[in-house]
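Input protein
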Amino acid sequence: MCARYVRVVVVRRRHHLRTGAVTSAFFTDLSNVLDCVSTLIEPIFVVGDININLERPGDPTTVQFTDLLADRGLTCHVTSSTHERGGTLDVIATRDDLPPPPVEVVDVGLSDHRCCGGLRR
C-alpha cells in the first residue's frame, strides 16, 4: 500500500457496567461515520475498543457489527484475544480491496486490554 494519505476512524465504546448492552445509538452513530468514509479513495482503518465479543460469531451484537463493516466493504483483521479475561473486544478493520495489514496483539501490562497493532514489514 503506497497511499500518501490514509483515513483513520477511532472507535471507543464504553462497556455498560450493569448490562454490557450495546445501544442502538452506537450502531447508528458508527453507521453514519462509516457511510461518510467508506466511499473515499484513501485507505481506511477503523480501529479501537468496541467492547463487543467478536469471537462469538453467532452473537446478535457481533453479527450486527460485522454486518455493518461488511456492508461497507470492511473486514476486521484482529483474530486473537485482546482482553486479559479472553475475548476479542478491539478492532482493526480495513477495506476489502486492500491487502490486509499484519496484526499483532501484545500484552504490554498497562491495561486489561492488549495492544493491537498493524505493523509494516
Summary: The chain has two helices and six strands. The helical segments are 24-37, 60-70. Residues 9 and 46 are 5 Å apart (CA to CA). The longest strand covers residues 7-12.
